[in-house]
Amino acid sequence: MLAVLIAVCLAQVVGAAEVRVAVAANFASTLHVLAEGFRSETGHRLQISTGSTGKHYAQIHNGAAFDVFLAGDSARPARLEAEGVGVAGSRFTYAVGRLALWVPGESGLGPPDEYLGTADFRRLAIANPRLAPYGLAAQQALQAWQLWDRMQPRLVRGENIAQAFQFVATGNASAGLVALSLLRAGQMPDGAFRLIPDSLHQPIRQDALLLRRGEAAEAFLLYLRGDEATGVIRSAGYRVEADR
User: Fold this and answer.
1) Looking at residue 239, which CATH number applies to its domain?
2) Residues 162/182, Cβ–Cβ less than 8 Å
């Protein structure tokens, strides 16, 4: 029996591979949880590179050696696929993000548009709408409330949603339009938050794309669509396609 167990362990080690994943900043903490489950199930490991979806798109377009792209939107993976970068037909939505207004120091919040329209605060942090899907969603929500122009002197833009979150966490912004997943990952940090209605912005559909064929990379995308992974994704503050 011991010999059989040793043989199985050795087979897992010999067959183990590393999957290079470019991931949107908002999903990084969730991906680290998923990486452990994937490693336990398959023996394969993830090498995780975190950044804005816009920057990852440019790197991949210029030949960066990633195996999988977990974007913060659906547009850039679709663009790469149309450009012949990545494996045709491999793209799918792995998560649907939620946007929230977070205000440290508040014990409760009313409707987000009322707070933003009437509260006396210095800075509102958002992600850069040109680079980050959560930033575009924040812009669209503010435009829907007719607050976008009024907010310009108060806006501080992070390169990605994680940086926007840090602006609020460190006190460099009084409030922020941030990813619900980052609030969950921080175990509900100080303050109050309110979800932004999905109807105020385009769906934050986050698509995956297989960039290079390989057993480990394909196994990871299969794992990402399984029940265990989708359960983790839901608990992290996202929806999955089956929820919509």
Assistant:
1) 3.40.190.10
2) yes
161-201 residue pLDDT tens: 889 999 999 999 999 999 999 898 865 668 899 999 999 99
Task: Label residue 144 by pLDDT band (50, 70, 90).
Answer: very high
> What's the domain count of the chain?
2
Structure tokens at 156: 């501080």
Owning domain of residue 127:
99-195
Q: What is the CA radius of gyration of the chain?
A: 19
- DSSP secondary structure code for residue 95 in this structure: E
Query: d(Cα 122, Cα 117) in Å, to the nearest integer?
Result: 13
pLDDT, tens digit (0-9, with 9 covering 90-100), for 93-108: 999 999 999 999 887 7
Tokens of 131: 């680079």
> H or E segment at 198?
none
Looking up tokens 């979800």 gives 195
